[in-house]
Fold this sequence. Notes:
Blueprint: H1 2-18, H2 25-49, H3 57-61, H4 64-98, H5 111-138
Helix pairs in contact: 1-2, 2-5, 4-5
Amino acid sequence: MALVMMSSLIFCQVVARYVFEKSFSWTDEIAVYCLIWFVYISASWAVRERAHIRVMSLIELMPPAVAKWSIYLSDAIWIGFAIFLTWQGILLNESLWTRSYVSPALGIEQKWPYLIVSLGFAMMVLRLLQLYVRHIWYGDPLLEVPAAERSEPAP
């Protein structure tokens, strides 16, 4: 939804600017907010789908037990980093709640758009923990094995 809204606003801004020779300042601001929220929410979704970029060439060369523990270590570092950024986002938002900082075109209090920093990283932490709960309780794999390497044929 945010991506559609952002694209529509930018399209309307281009049409207004070049066809009608009239510019709207508020469309750019809303498009930026949509982009930022879209990126953080999509990053959380990508964690759930294990779609983030990983350099697997080194892990694929390791013995399976070492590869498994290196994945655990890298995910632990990732969770720690995401917790740190969640905390920093909370501190940032706390500073925005104590003083007034409004956007130039719409006059929106910046505490609302910046709220996604702490929410986005908190959602990443929850998704990573969800992956490990599913891995431990249900035996779900942490990484998807390509269809060519599976013992059974792909559907």
